[in-house]
Amino acid sequence: MLVVSGTSRAENRKDLARQCCQPRVPLRLTTQRSGLALDSALWRKYWQPCRAFFEVDLRLVQRLNRLKKAWLNVLQHPADRLCHMTYCWRYFGLLHHAMRIAIEEPRRPDPLSAIRRIVGFETLLLEAVGEVGTAACAVASRNPVFLLGQLAVDPTMPTPRHVPLLMPSGQEDLYYHYRQLQISGTPAQRVLVSPAVDLPRRADSFIPLDRFTRLVSERADPYWKTRARLLARRILAPLLDARREATATEPGPTCILDLGAGTGELLAKAWTYLARMKGALPQASFHFVDANPPAFGRSFGLARERAGVTHVEWTTADYRALVDDDQWLRKSGPFGWVFACRVLDNASNFMIEPIEPDDSDGLSLNCLPHRCLAPHSQPDGIRCLRVSTVRRQARGGTIYPQFSLRDYFRGMLILQSRSLDVARDEAWHLPVRRFNPAALITPSGRSLLAQLMKVSGAVIIEDVDAQPEHLRQHRAQFGLAGTAAVFCTGDGFRTEANHFVVTSPGWVGGLRGERLW
Ligand SMILES: C[S@@+](CC[C@H](N)C(=O)[O-])C[C@H]1O[C@@H](n2cnc3c(N)ncnc32)[C@H](O)[C@@H]1O
Questions:
Q1: How far apart are CA 352 and CA 350, in angstroms?
Q2: Is the CB of 273 under 6 A from ligand 1?
Q3: Is 156 a residue whose pLDDT tops 90?
Q4: H, E, C per residue of 426-480
Q5: pTM for the whole thing?
């Protein structure tokens, strides 16, 4: 187990924040035993692979030189929005014109190397020494795609959704937005971390991500308090009431299983809120399961046990494999409740696809940054940007209507298909994110919910991708006799995620929402 003390985390953050201001292009961040190593390249060296494509054309060389100037300005004036605007204009201009010239002048040498460098600019590969998995990351204050998202609304909450996909230079693999970690105070310096889109490599990609997190951060998910309060009010309180009514006496000790627990703080905090709402609670023990081991200073229950919680246990395992193991379930259960919060969506699928804009998007080519951010279009031009991070349903999944990033996503498609064909049509390409039904199926092909309901009173799911139809389809496939399910809505709360409870029919009475079966 990697043990990191508070002091070394502070030092790691300070050291990284200092390196993140350097006028070198970052390439790779490697987590070592208790520190971090950042590899970077001089500007000239980074762009070396584009020389054959660029150097026969003075226009591209000039564009690159102007991007360098804008990049240096952003490094020197990280809070200056005018510098951000010029930088984004230059970056997206280089990207757009490089792709255009690659199509118009097919005899030019090696366009893909040039596009690869531009798309992967200011994107790092994240690795852990001695581990196979790779993730990606970007330093928010210098990544042009992130800064573009920040430009559009003022003031805006920084979110990793501004950069929905990353493709580090030299790779053809995509990485999807996951979390931001703050590494310095004022001005705030954040690193966006992204796991692999490719499902066979996804689980391993959480390893460097977890190592990096524990080396720089004591903090859990910034939204966990709100989420925990919502869970307690919306789901746990009615379930507890149902349990009290059913037993007619105060329920006995209970064990709660949390799959994909992260730091475990969500469950712990939800339990604390429940105690505040309901007064005395039955004695409880917590069993946390996560693919990554718990970390001192971050994970609940390692340092000391909390009031009302009799016992805390951590198991490091894949949640689907564990739930497949009948012996383990019998030995560790029965459980009062099982949580699966924000873990199923770690298996979601991502595809860049053509998207039909809505009439309400009022879309024109002017939303492309190389057009609307040109100095002569200011100040109104900035309003043409379409970089919303509000989720929208499309093509059976979710998109963010970030049409201004069209060329960025096209560049990724070109690199994946090794063909410029995709850039020839007029379609608007965006990433679509979809629930993966395999998240609810164990490795031996059984239903995760059926397995859990054999040993627990209720399964509580919080998920950003699961929709009611996904649970209904799962039931149609596996039966789930003797269970009931509720999609929890209609109680005045709205969050990004959907909440579902699968339990026995007698327990659903107090839950507000739509009965799925
Ligand atoms: C977004 S965090 C959610 C943490 C917590 N449940 C919450 O809602 O705040 C997802 C967690 O799932 C874990 N995870 C991802 N895939 C997993 C798997 N196959 N088995 C177990 N844990 C997994 C990750 O390590 C991470 O800690």
A1: 7
A2: no
A3: no
A4: CCEEEEEEECCHHHHECCCCCEHHHHHHCCEEEEEEEECCCCHHHHHHHHHHHCC
A5: 0.91
Flag whether pLDDT at 1 surpasses 50: no
Residue nearest to atom 18 of ligand 1 (CA): 318
Test site for ligand 1: of 325, 345, 346, 441, most ligand atoms within 8 A of the Cβ: 346
* Residue whose C-alpha is closest to residue 466's, from 497, 422, 508, 431: 497
- Calculate the CA dihedral of residues 488, 491, 497, 498 and round it to 10 degrees: 20
* Cβ of residue 266 lying under 6 Å from some atom of ligand 1: yes
β-pairing, 484-487 with 514-515? Answer: antiparallel
Tens of pLDDT, residues 85-94? 999 999 999 9
DSSP code, position 232: I
The string of pLDDT tens digits covering residues 207-263 is 999 999 989 987 666 677 888 999 999 999 999 888 787 776 666 678 999 999 988
SS3 for 39?
Answer: strand
- Decide if 414 contacts 333 (C-beta within 8 A): no
Residue nearest to atom 4 of ligand 1 (CA): 262
- Specify whether the CB–CB gap between 169 and 120 falls below 8 A: yes
Q: Helix (H, G, I), strand (E, B), or coil: what is residue 359?
A: helix
Decide whether any atom of ligand 1 lies within 6 Å of the 343 Cβ. Answer: yes
Q: What whole-number distance in Å separates Cα of residue 38 and Cα of residue 185?
A: 20
Q: Which residues pair with 126 in a beta bridge?
A: 29, 135
Please state at what angle helix 406-417 crosses helix 111-119, rounded to 10 degrees.
130
| pLDDT score for 279 | 82
pLDDT of amino acid 307: 62
> Among the atoms of ligand 1, which is closest to the Cα of residue 318?
20
Kind of pairing between the strands at 25-31 and 124-128: parallel
Lowest mean pLDDT among 47-51, 187-191, 216-220, 261-265: 216-220
168/147 Cα distance (integer angstroms): 17
Give CA–CA dist 97/92, Å, rounded. 8
Does 387 have pLDDT greater than 80? yes
- Closest by CA position to 12, among listed 212, 284, 305, 275: 212
Closest CA to 202 of 229, 175, 222: 175
C-beta of 464 in contact with ligand 1 (< 6 A): no
pLDDT (0 to 100) of residue 249: 65
Rounded to whole angstroms, the Cα distance separating 503 from 97 reads 56
